[in-house]
Design a protein that fits this description.
Mean pLDDT: 88
Distance between the termini: 39 Å
Strand content: under 5%
Number of helices: 3
Structural class: mainly alpha
Number of domains: 1
CATH topology: Helix Hairpins
Shape: elongated
Helix content: over 70%
CATH class: Mainly Alpha
Oligomer: single chain
Number of strands: 0
Order of helices and strands: HHH
Length: about 120
C-alpha cells in the first residue's frame, strides 16, 4: 500500500487519492462504531432509535451520554462503549495520520539519501 523507501515519492495527485482512501476507511470505522452504539443503547435501555443515535454519537464524540440510564445492562453497555469509543478515537487518528507521517518520513529519508550520495568538495 505504501511505497518502499527506495521508490520515488508519490505524486501529489496519488497522495491525495491515498488520503481520500484513508478518509473513507476512517468514515467506515465511525459508521460501524455508531451502529454498534445505536443497537446497544436500543437493546439495553429500550431507547428509541433516534435517542440511541444521539447517545451513541455523543459518547463516540467524547461528550458523554444525553439520556439518563436506568438499567444495569444499559450502564454496563455504556461503560464498555465509552472505553471502546476512546480506543476508536485513537484508531481513527492513526488511520488519518498514517499517510501524512509516511510521506514526511519518506521525504526525510530521500533527503538524507541525497546528502549521503552527494560528492564532497
Amino acid at each position: 500500500m505504501y511505497e518502499h523507501h527506495t521508490q520515488p515519492m508519490l505524486t501529489r495527485k496519488y497522495f491525495l487519492l491515498r488520503m481520500l482512501w484513508h478518509l473513507l476507511a476512517a468514515s467506515l470505522v465511525i459508521a460501524g462504531s455508531l451502529i454498534i452504539g445505536i443497537i446497544g443503547y436500543h437493546s439495553s435501555e429500550g431507547l428509541s432509535w433516534l435517542d440511541s443515535l444521539l447517545n451513541a454519537a455523543m459518547i463516540l464524540g467524547g461528550m458523554g451520554p444525553v439520556t439518563e440510564l436506568h438499567t444495569a445492562t444499559g450502564k454496563i453497555f455504556a461503560s464498555f462503549y465509552a472505553l471502546f469509543s476512546g480506543v476508536i478515537f485513537l484508531v481513527i487518528a492513526g488511520i488519518l495520520i498514517a499517510p501524512v507521517a509516511h510521506r514526511l518520513l519518506h521525504r526525510l529519508h530521500l533527503e538524507i539519501g541525497e546528502e549521503e550520495t552527494s560528492p564532497e568538495n
